[in-house]
Each structure stands twice: as structure tokens, then as C-alpha cells.
């Protein structure tokens, strides 16, 4: 192909890339053209290489947008987690990092005392999910109830639950830190039920499941909710003292109570 034809083809590629809103195709086509000619690539190999660059760039760009929109409190990864404190959890987390649980609408539950890395791991899995193309939302249990209560007050709770089902992953942090009143517990139950076998949840809690009745004020509601959560779920129990207290001469935090103790005389 002569210089004039090459220039004309380059102009056409520039125009077509702009029409497709894929300017990176133009850059990749130019950069790979000489390499393709020198290596004797087939037309198919060259086209595949150009399109691969565009798809990779779009995935990376889209992942960053999804991470930003998720509302994570901080960016955390599995790579920067202190596995020395939780060595037994590593194989399960490595399996979850493939993202397969999202395709199966499975849940992940992280249980353990405060400061053992539950929020870090939930965030890390959320960032991985965003990288796999899933929309993600992160909030504390209290914030989720506030959001659902507002939707209920405005008469649009069914629409809000349907909208949330379009998210591949919802993360509910800190279940159990504050007990819920009955109306709030019922709203949370509806969130869990609406996603059952449709889309994934990740929940973190400082309490074992046996303590959830006190959180939701009703053992029957708690049991029905737990049944839906764990039917298709990976449950990880983290152990040990809070990493925030290490080196401060404090071994553990006091237990968080969800029921009112009788006052002793």
C-alpha cells in the first residue's frame, strides 16, 4: 500500500473511531500497524489486537467509575490485607476473588469482633466485583434502613427495591452495631428478600447469627432473614483482637450488647 493510500486509510480510521466514540481504536490501530506488518499478522490477528486494546481500556475506565459510584469508605484490596491475622480466611477469599459467587447470586457473610478486617474484605470484594463489570453499592446497615425508610415514606419502596436489584452486589456493613425498631427490621427483611436468588449481598456483623434476634427485635424475623441469606452463601468467621488496638496493650474490645441487661443492685 502506497503512502497516499495509507494516509487515506488512517483518516478513515480516525473518522470511524470518532463515530464509534472509541478514540483509543485510532491510537491502537496506528501503534500496532507496523508491528503487524513486521510480524506478518493476519488481518484477523490485527483486528483482534486493536479491539482487545479498546475493550481493556473500556473495562478499566468503567471499573473506576463503578468503584467511585459504589460509595466505599476507602479503597481496600485483598493484596494489602494483613493475612497474618486471618490466615484461615485466605483460601475462601481467594476463591471468592474469582467473582463466581456474583454470577450465582450467592451471598458472603463476614462475622467477627470489631477490628478484624470485615469492612476491608467486604470492600476488597466489592472492588473486584466492579472490575468484573458489576454495579456495586456500599452502605452501613443503618444507612440502608434510612434509605429504605425514605422510599417507604414516599410510597416508592417497591420501585426502590426493584432498582436495587439491578445492582449485582450490595454491601451491608455493620449489621448489629445498633438494634433496629420493628419497622426498620421489616424494611431490612424486604431488602434481603428482594435479592434472594436474584443478586448478591455481602454482609458484615460483629455478632454471630444467634445474636441477630436482639438486633431485629424478633427471633422469627431474624430466623427468616438468616435462612434467606445463608441458603446460598459463604460464611466466614474472623477471629482475633482488633488490629486497631495492636501495640496498645489492649487485647480486645468489650462485647457489644443488643439486649438490655438487668440492672444489678
Question: Describe it for me?
Answer:
The protein is of the alpha/beta class and 265 residues long. The protein is 53% helix and 11% strand. The protein has eleven helices and five strands, in the order H-H-H-H-H-E-H-E-H-H-E-H-E-H-H-E. It starts with a helix and ends in a 28-residue tail after the last strand.
SSE map:
Elements: H1 3-19, H2 23-39, H3 43-70, H4 90-96, H5 100-103, E1 107-111, H6 118-131, E2 136-140, H7 141-153, H8 157-164, E3 169-175, H9 182-195, E4 200-205, H10 212-216, H11 219-231, E5 233-237
Parallel strand pairs: 1-4, 1-5, 2-3, 3-4
Helix pairs in contact: 1-2, 2-3, 3-6, 7-8, 7-9, 9-11
Question: What tags apply to this protein structure?
Answer:
alpha/beta; 5 strands; disordered C terminus; five-stranded parallel sheet; 53% helix; 2 domains; 265 residues
In short, what is this structure?
The protein is of the alpha/beta class. It has helices spanning 3-19, 23-39, 43-70, 90-96, 100-103, 118-131, 141-153, 157-164, 182-195, 212-216, 219-231, and strands at residues 107-111, 136-140, 169-175, 200-205, 233-237.
Question: How many independent structural domains?
Answer: 2
The level 1 CATH classification of the largest domain is Alpha Beta
* Rg over alpha carbons: 25 Å
CATH superfamily assignment of the largest domain? P-loop containing nucleotide triphosphate hydrolases
The largest beta-sheet arranges its strands as 2-3-4-1-5
Which runs of at least 5 residues are low in confidence (pLDDT < 50)? 244-265
Secondary-structure element order, as H and E? HHHHHEHEHHEHEHHE
Q: Mind describing the biggest β-sheet?
A: 5 strands, parallel
Q: Helix tally?
A: 11
